[in-house]
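Recap quiz, item 2
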Amino acid sequence: MINKKMQDAINKQINEELFSSYLYLSMSAYFETLNLKGFAHWMKIQAYEEQFHAAKLYNHIVERGGAVNLLPINEPAHSWKSALEIFEESLKHEYHITKCIDDLMNLSLEERDHASRTLLTWFVDEQVEEENSFTEMVEKLKMIGDNNPMLLMQDKEMLARTTTVDVLNPQGTAQP
Ligand code: MG
């Protein structure tokens, strides 16, 4: 059985992950308005993977006899100045999520909740991947700068992103 303190903190993290999904979906919609279909596709997959993160936490609470309490999701921004600005904001957001995961991990240690600690280890590793993939994109977009033909080439490349995660099977351990 999960304790109340840990349960509340994980419910808060479900909200963080669902906000992340909302934010990336909003970014995807913005890329659609620019006709950058590859970037839109990449961000839509990112949004889906955030739902998977939420589902993993949700599942953990359910499996341990706790109560999932869904909280209001904040409204994300709707427009940005450039693709670079979008990825810089995303990277900053992922730094924030990493801090949330680290705080949750610290709480699991204080509470001696080893089941939560094991689950959170997955998230700690996942955040290394997330920060890395957004950093790579920021660096690429800085190199592309105002070169529109290069931006269109990058857009094509973004279409290749796939995912192996399944929101309906959150115990799957496949790394996105
Ligand atoms: Mg996430």
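The radius of gyration is 17 Å.
Helices lie at 4-33, 37-63, 83-110, 114-144, 148-158.
End of item.
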